[in-house]
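Task: fold both queries, return tokens.
Query 1:
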Amino acid sequence: MQAHQPPNSREPVLGVRAFLRLGAFSLDIGFSIGARFTALFGPSGCGKTTTLKVIAGLLRPERGHIRLNGRCLFDSERDCDLPPEQRGVGLVFQDARLFPHMTVEENLRFAFKYIRQGQQRFDFDEVVRALQLQPLLTRKPRSLSGGETQRVAIGRMLLAAPDILLLDEPMAALDIPTRLHLLTELRDIHERFRLPMLYVSHDLATVLNIADEVLLMQKGRITGQGAPETVLADYISTGLLATETVRNIIHGHVVRHDDALGTTTIRANGIELVLPRVQRAPEQAIKLELPASEIILATVQPQQISARNVLRGTVRNILQIGNRTLVRVDAGLMLTVEIVEATVQALNLKEGCDVFMIIKATAFRLLN
């Protein structure tokens, strides 16, 4: 396998300036991103999928330019317009588009058809291991679950050796536990293969827990870019965010079990958490979901309570998003807590103050 060495995560990898009219809708965008996991965030119909299609070469802008790692993909003034197969852009759609007559292995190896010798960037066996595809190799797409299908689609696109991976919210149709599990796997893939990713999302869990950076899109324009907390704090859209459950995603490993109490203790970022007994061996990796609304805040250490987890932390920031209040607390493990606005005043919460997070053992949900 050839080593894949993308630029520094903060250096520009993809630069886009494009204008396109589609009926009554117009796309007018300008942005650049580095080799990070970037979320393209915004309401339905704002132009997110159109943006990905423009970058991938499936739609041609009326004017503008697109550059990837300094290479011209499109430039209306220089008559540069590379076809999709020459752009080095991988695009994964919501529907996986696997070949139904091929096995999973044949679908994966089909990616090599368009790669010239010496261009292969990722080893077949390594991709199969990373996405846990070995048990699926002899099966046909019709026998796969939704999550399995998307893992195969992502694997096939990786094997096509892209310089950047664009994902049109391929997890949207999956149930929440499967979606969150696959998102954490996707983040692992990003870090393992050091591959820049641009992920279309309108899911707060993705933006707050997975993305390094957010591009905020509204009505065909990029209206914000930066760290998730900064961008979301400036984004007021109760229609999009009013019902979205904010979830923390926790990566850890099993420490021990207490059969008498029926509990399991895990460690995440040096912090021990107690949850109901799970069937995992000690030291085995574990991924958990914790809804932000399931965490209680206190400014003094609670005594004689039933909750098994009390974590002391520091308020890093308080986000007012539409009519919702989110508090980011650093307890060695960064967690988002959702409270009502009146609680901020009642507890005199502010950045830098110490708080205690109270979490019931039953609040955690197993993802893997």
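Query 1 returned. Query 2:
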Amino acid sequence: MTRSPWRRLGAAFQNLLADIGRHYQLAAKVADRTFVGPWRGEKFRFEETLAEVHRAGNESLPLVALISVLVGMILAMQSAYQLQQMGAERLVAQLVAVSVTRELAPLLTAILVAGRVGSAITAELGTMKVSQEIDALTVMGIDPIGALVVPRLVGLVVAVPCLTLFADLVGILGGCGVATVLLGQSASGYLLDSLHALELEDLWGSVLKALAFGGIIGLVGCHQGLETRGGSGEVGRSTTTSVVRSIVLIIVADLFVTALLYLRH
């Protein structure tokens, strides 16, 4: 019997609420193992966390650098075309600096990390889940949350802000290269205009967004991996779901953080 659209909508909303509840439970467990566990004598896996920071940060650095410098160059060319018509091409530096720092660098960095690292985390945990390796850890008395989830999530929360600050710098330098070659501006003057346009709040906002995005990528990636059921084919579905859900939640979080930081003025 075919269900009515209202019943399907209600079932989808019910599944959404249940999914949010499972994400919240996992986040609460991670917070407990990270901040309370060491006081109970539980070991914080520092070496594994550093390895995750290296994987999410250092190994993603070339891709983030390439995308950031290209975006800075494109933004400079597009803005110069419009501003030259008003004789205000000197404002290119300010426009690029503010746009890259406030919005483009944290958003693009998070999307790249979600596609590269978040998917890998889901695939790893999903494979361990379907092969019953996680159940074996539990039988041996090893907490899977503390051993597998905490290092990955904390590593992303540390790495994504560092990558974002690097993307801020590289994006501004990309715009500087375009302004120097095409507009005839001096590099020193361009960089000074960029510094004058930026405020400390812009950098803090960029870092705050990156912290939220790193947490979202780690939480969604680990949750989808641990929720994988069935055979190896389900690992691919979980990985796809992880990337799509991470990107959607990143954009939603970006909206809320932007409203919190800039609409109150």
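Both queries returned. Flag for query 2: The chain has nine helices and no strands.
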